[in-house]
């Protein structure tokens, strides 16, 4: 009977041994799944990673949906869903270093959410606003809303390594990894050639856009130089005081800055600093003219909407573009009179493949040009219903000409664009610790304006 009992207990003993072996083999995988290196490896293959310990927060189907949306948008947005209690110290910095991808990183950790980005992809203020806008939502709603809003505002291209595969939410078998590796090796040369060809085409398009834009910007610089000559101001002339000389010096410096910046421009978004300098210079000239004539100093206003070469605006006037809605635009005195008399304003027109057109119908490259003159804050209302306004609100605009209405390019990226693999070569100030440095919740600085961070 004892032998019979031992024989009957053998299957149970075997199951117990197998279970023990499975636990032993599985333990290292579970540990590795929580490591930053493992998360980084997964994110280099797909934009969404769901840790096995956080699988209840976001289903595989929902993770796949987010990943497809990000890939289709061709943007470097990387999302990690991690379990509550995951160590947060230097998490973003370490994850960015291990991943090596220039991009926007979002982390859902338990019921907490935060994000960081390279400034080449999205300014820090924009990241804060996006994070704040989705606080308090459940995981699926929060990540969906954040993804929708981020893709519409961020710049850059998706990393080439996202060309295929599924999300890293539930682990991949070693056989699948070997198979994927073999395919990557076999197709590596072709993929590399494709990436280089796409990059060359993109660079050629950027150069062509800048060449078209350069003509207009050079006209602006020339017009400002002629204004300086007509002014005929001499710092030592009778009646000149220190305030006048300071105005004149600022105008001269703006002229030199504009010429230098245009000479160094390599992309359409680089002209923003040029037109910004010209706008500053024209305001300095307006102040100088008022001082010389004994008039009250002008208030700081944007330039004339119809042609910034007209100088600072003096009032706002109602204007309706063809097929658009009426809006208030800043205008110079001459255009204000024309509009009041029922006449057309004198509009800045530029050459296009369809002939001379107003700058707001000439192409997306004029977004940075307009952004330097008018700043991001007032442009949405000014350009509503125009072709340029439509281009600038499209997600594709940010990748080529800036990051939408809030900002118009000009970031110092160190040569790396969104999606590029820069490794550890990035500005740690863009990332940092959770709750530290006044970035999000609990820190110093302006963190009180943007609560809800880690």
Structure overview:
This protein is of the alpha/beta class and 454 residues long. It is 51% helix and 9% strand. The protein contains 13 helices and eight strands. Strands 1-2-3-4 form a four-stranded mixed sheet, with helices on both faces. A two-stranded antiparallel sheet has the order 5-6. Strand 7 and strand 8 form a beta hairpin. Helix 8 packs antiparallel against helix 9 and helix 9 packs across helix 11. The N terminus and C terminus are likely disordered.
- Please indicate the percent range of residues in DSSP E strands (runs of 2 or more): 5-15%
Distance between the termini: 64 Å
Order of helices and strands: HHEHEHEEHHHHHEEHEEHHH
Number of strands: 8
Unreliable runs = 1-10, 13-33, 164-173, 403-416, 434-454
The whole-number mean of residue pLDDT values reads 77
Task: Provide the gyration radius in Å.
Answer: 29 Å
Number of helices, where a helix is a run of at least 4 consecutive DSSP H or I residues: 13
Sheet with the most strands, sense and barrel status? 4 strands, mixed
- As an assembly, this protein is single chain
Strand order of the largest sheet: 1-2-3-4
Fraction in helix = 40-55%
Q: What structural class do helix, strand and pairing data support?
A: alpha/beta
The coarse overall form would be elongated
């Amino acid at each position: 009977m004892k032998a019979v009992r031992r024989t009957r207990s053998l299957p149970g003993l075997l199951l117990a041994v197998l279970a023990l072996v499975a636990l032993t083999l599985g333990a290292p995988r579970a540990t590795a799944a929580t490591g930053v290196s493992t998360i980084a490896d997964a994110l280099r293959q797909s934009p969404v990673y769901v840790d096995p310990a956080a699988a209840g927060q976001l289903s595989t189907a929902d993770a796949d949906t987010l990943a497809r949306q990000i890939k289709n948008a061709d943007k470097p947005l990387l999302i990690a869903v991690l379990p509550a209690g995951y160590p947060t110290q230097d998490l973003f910095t370490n994850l960015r270093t291990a991943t090596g991808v220039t991009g926007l990183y979002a982390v859902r950790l338990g019921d907490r959410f935060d994000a960081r980005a390279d400034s080449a992809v999205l300014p820090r203020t924009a990241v804060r606003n996006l994070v704040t806008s989705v606080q308090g939502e459940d995981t699926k709603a929060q990540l969906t809303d954040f993804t929708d809003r981020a893709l519409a505002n961020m710049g850059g291209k998706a990393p080439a390594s996202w060309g295929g595969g599924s999300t890293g939410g539930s682990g991949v078998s070693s056989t699948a990894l070997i198979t994927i590796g073999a395919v990557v090796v076999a197709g590596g040369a072709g993929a590399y050639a494709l990436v280089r060809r796409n990059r060359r085409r993109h660079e050629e398009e950027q150069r062509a856009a800048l060449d078209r834009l350069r003509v207009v910007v050079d006209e602006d610089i020339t017009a400002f130089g002629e204004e300086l000559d007509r002014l005929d101001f001499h710092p030592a002339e009778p009646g000149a005081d220190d305030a006048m000389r300071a105005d004149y010096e600022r105008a001269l410096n703006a002229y030199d800055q504009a010429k230098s910046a245009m000479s160094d421009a390599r992309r359409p978004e680089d002209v923003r600093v040029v037109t910004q300098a010209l706008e500053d210079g024209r305001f300095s000239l307006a102040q100088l003219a008022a001082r010389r004539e004994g008039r009250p100093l002008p208030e700081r206003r944007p330039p004339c909407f119809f042609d910034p070469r007209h100088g600072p605006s003096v009032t706002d006037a109602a204007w309706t573009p063809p097929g658009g809605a009426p809006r208030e635009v800043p205008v110079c005195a001459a255009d204000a009179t024309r509009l009041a008399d029922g006449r057309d304003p004198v509009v800045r027109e530029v050459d296009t493949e369809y002939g001379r057109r107003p700058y707001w119908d000439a192409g997306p490259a004029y977004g940075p040009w307009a952004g330097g003159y008018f700043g991001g804050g007032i442009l949405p209302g000014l350009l509503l219903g125009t072709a340029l306004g439509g281009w600038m609100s499209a997600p594709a605009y940010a990748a080529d000409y800036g990051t939408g209405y809030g900002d118009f390019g000009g970031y110092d990226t160190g040569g790396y664009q969104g999606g590029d693999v820069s490794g550890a070569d990035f500005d740690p100030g863009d990332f940092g610790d959770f709750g530290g440095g006044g970035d999000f919740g609990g820190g110093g600085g302006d963190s009180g304006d943007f609560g809800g961070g880690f």
